[in-house]
Amino acid sequence: MTKETYFEELSCALRRRELLPRPVEEDGLLPAEWNGRALCRVTERGAARYDPN
User: Fold this and answer.
1) DSSP for 1-53?
2) Which one of 9, 11, 30, 37 is at 20 to 30 Å from 2 when CA atoms are compared?
3) What is the Cα–Cα distance from 5 to 35, expressed in whole angstroms?
4) What's the angle, vertex CA 2, arms to CA 45 and CA 37, rounded to 5?
5) Could you report the per-residue pLDDT of 1-53, keeping only the tens digit for each?
6) Which pLDDT score is estimated for 51?
């Protein structure tokens, strides 16, 4: 599976859970928001990097 396909599938799954995926960042991570706040950024391997704020 390509990185693009993975992020497309992940974005659909996030929306089903009422999370808002944002466009992929320059560093190649997919950010996700919850209740209007940054929640985490996901790598192409599926690891979530959580925002400490």
Assistant:
1) --HHHHHHHHHHHHHHTT-EE-PPPTTS-EEEEETTEEEEEE-TTS-EEE---
2) 37
3) 26
4) 55
5) 999 999 999 999 999 999 999 999 999 999 999 999 999 999 999 999 997 76
6) 73
pLDDT at 18: 96
Query: What is the residue range of 40's domain?
Result: 3-50
Confidence (pTM): 0.87
Q: How far is CA 28 from CA 16, 24, 43, in A?
A: 23, 6, 7
* Number of separate domains in the chain: 1
Q: Which residue has the tokens 């192409």?
A: 44
